[in-house]
TrEMBL record:
UniProt source species: Lepraria neglecta
Descriptive protein name: L-type lectin-like domain-containing protein
GO molecular function: D-mannose binding
One record GO biological process: endoplasmic reticulum to Golgi vesicle-mediated transport
Database matches in CDD domains: lectin_leg-like
Chief subcellular location: membrane
Record Gene3D superfamilies: 2.60.120.200
Length: 310
């Protein structure tokens, strides 16, 4: 059981999920595939039917009926804004295939279930790469869609998630592509989520969707899962690369909500905020001078009046 993370991938992934990869010996990081001494991954856990083939792939399901597998990060994503790029491969024998796989950013981790091999009623984001049309007339498959779960909504499997859909797109030819197929998710906390796909040709990204005002759980794990039923496919994860993103500076103040402390609100006007604080304190001092001056004046007035009486 060996994980195939490449050295660079490991480093950026670790940077994203908060692992102290910098303490990993340089020599180890430079040897792809990365091997733990105990033949496990420091960063991920996997379960059910998932198998790991040294230096080639993590196979969530094999091309057999009734398979189900998952792979989840051990630690939550610590980045506020991030980009995660995943290379995957869905392929198998025969003419009919299913059911598909999912990418997860959820509070739950490693819980098998009926939503592409992972738990239903999840809290967070699920992006489904659905390769088998159960019932969605007029929609071309494979179909990629996002669902935002709040722990109480169930995935509408019979209709391929139609009632749960946040956004989605058709991706004919995504399955069994001739070039490395990839999905890229770009998230700015509470601002936007964008999903791009690559399957038509190398380095040609196709936007699947971009949606606004997305808020994901504060503690969320990165995961993958897949399942087969009567129909089957191999669902393989080939590579994962994750990056911290700095806050966008050109999209106005609204684009900065949820930013880290150093990601100050966009302020093209410069130093208005400190200036207004100085003026505030100056007003307090002036007020104090007026009050003290008034009291002293009043006391002197009373003293002089008393003195004139005697
Ligand atoms: Ca389906």
């Amino acid at each position: 059981m060996i994980l195939p993370w490449q050295a660079s991938t490991l480093w950026v992934l670790a940077a994203c999920i908060g692992v102290q990869a910098v303490t990993t010996p340089e020599g180890v990081r430079q040897i792809p595939p990365y091997l733990d001494s105990d033949m496990q991954s420091r960063y991920f856990e996997f379960g059910e039917d998932t198998i790991v083939r040294a230096d080639q792939y993590i196979r969530l399901t094999s091309d057999r009926q009734a398979q189900s597998g998952w792979l989840f990060s051990k630690m939550p994503i610590t980045a506020t804004n991030w980009m995660i790029e995943v290379e995957f491969k869905i392929h198998g024998q025969g003419h009919l295939h299913g059911d598909g796989m999912a990418v997860w950013i959820t509070e739950e981790r490693g819980k098998p279930g009926k939503v592409f091999g992972s738990t239903d009623n999840f809290n967070g984001l699920g992006i489904f790469i659905d390769t088998y049309k159960n019932s969605r007339p007029g929609v071309t498959f494979p179909y990629v869609m996002a669902m935002l779960g709040n722990s109480s909504v169930s995935y509408d499997k019979d209709h391929d998630g139609k009632d749960n859909e946040l956004a989605g797109c058709s991706a004919r030819g995504l399955r069994s592509g001739t070039i490395p197929t990839k999905i890229r998710m770009t998230y700015y906390a509470e601002v936007s989520l964008r999903v791009d796909l690559q399957w038509k040709s190398a380095d040609e990204w196709t936007e699947c969707f971009e949606t606004e005002q997305i808020k994901l759980p504060q503690t969320a794990y990165l995961g993958f899962s897949a399942e087969t039923g009567e129909l089957s496919d191999n669902h393989d994860i080939i590579n994962v690369a994750a990056h911290n993103l700095h806050i966008r500076q050109n999209t106005g103040a609204s684009a900065n909500r949820g930013g880290k402390p150093q990601a100050k609100p966009y302020n093209p006007g410069g130093t208005k905020a400190p200036g207004s604080w100085r003026w505030f304190f100056l007003k307090i001092i002036l007020f104090g001078i007026v009050v003290v001056g008034g009291y002293v004046g009043y006391t002197m007035y009373r003293t002089s009046k008393r003195g004139s009486r005697f």
